[in-house]
Specification:
0% strand; 190 residues; mainly alpha
Length: 190
């Protein structure tokens, strides 16, 4: 079978492919810890901006219990996702158990407490405010402890696997919601 001569377009494609391979092999990858820190910081900053510009002004114009229920209820869904830190394949086998176990079960407990607090708020029980305080102290403490423990065990961001997105995108938002809840709890009722 006769060979066809390569076309100029084929030659150009080959040259570009080889140049791209050379450039990507020389490219330095950014430090994963830096990417992790920047991602979490930018998510926190974005969450604070949204809270300051939109959420807090709206919350201040509502009854405290109404604002609290809107802030606590999402935790009923989002906190159970933390159990994924205990699932091999979702996270790396190298994820330290000293971090994964308290983070996973701490989120689980926070989710349960969020259910109790949401039901108490919805039914306007006498113990609703106490339930929100318990949930919020536990929930905020759980997230802050996870950051502390992550630094203590020198958590490698890659070991989080898909959990990387939880820690960098969801956790900062949850921390800001805890701050808003504290703000409402400390606000005197009208």
């Amino acid at each position: 079978m006769p060979q066809c001569a390569p076309t100029p377009l084929y030659n150009l494609a080959q040259i570009l492919y080889i140049k791209r391979a050379e450039v990507s092999s020389e490219r330095q990858m950014m430090d994963p810890r830096a990417i992790f820190g920047i991602s979490a910081l930018m998510s926190l900053l974005s969450s604070i901006v949204v809270a300051a510009l939109f959420a807090w002004p709206w919350l201040r114009s509502r009854k405290r219990e109404e604002g609290l229920i809107w802030l606590v209820a999402p935790h009923m869904f989002l906190r159970f996702i933390g159990l994924s830190f205990l699932v091999p394949g979702v996270v790396s086998e190298s994820l330290p158990k000293a971090w994964a176990v308290p983070a996973g079960y701490g989120d689980f407990v926070a989710g349960i407490l969020a259910i109790f607090a949401t039901v108490a708020l919805a039914r306007a029980t006498t113990w609703a405010t106490a339930a929100v305080w318990i949930f919020n102290v536990w929930g905020a403490g759980d997230l802050l402890f996870a950051f502390y423990q992550g630094a203590h065990v020198q958590l490698a961001p890659g070991s989080l696997g898909a959990g990387f997105y939880l820690v960098t995108a969801i956790v900062p938002l949850l921390l800001v919601s805890h701050a808003l809840i504290f703000g409402l709890l400390l606000r005197s009722t009208p």
